[in-house]
Amino acid sequence: GNSQASRMELAKLLGKYDELRSQYQAQPVFKAPLWELRKGTDLSDPTAWEESEYYINQQGAVIWYNKVEKKTQLFCSQHDLRFAKVEAISDPTSCKPWAFQVVIESLSLKHIFAGTSEAGRAFWMEHLVGLSGDS
Q1: pLDDT tens per residue, range 74-106
Q2: pTM (two decimals)
Q3: Residues in Cβ contact with 104 at an 8 Å cutoff, skipping those fewer than 6 apart
């Protein structure tokens, strides 16, 4: 019907649907640890790298878990990734041999990461390039 009670019940159901939909869209489709080089530090310094959990969600955004704030945060959206350059780093001085960088000039963003293995780096780079305009 069109009663006040019916409208309130429908609003409750729609709110629950929106909540479930947003939870589904936030679910990871790909998740793996990455080493991240702290800004302004040296690739060869083992203490300059921090391991974090990163994932790509249903919407193609890259999310990471902030250990300090104990919550997930957006690294970049799928839209941002369309303009990303993802490149392997071959630097013999790096203490992490499977390093790569993600550069998004429109966001003035340049991050250096390293996979936990050669296959890990290849897998992350493949996923990021697949979401970027480089594919």
Answers
A1: 898 888 888 889 999 999 999 999 999 999 988
A2: 0.74
A3: 76, 80, 81, 83, 84, 85, 110
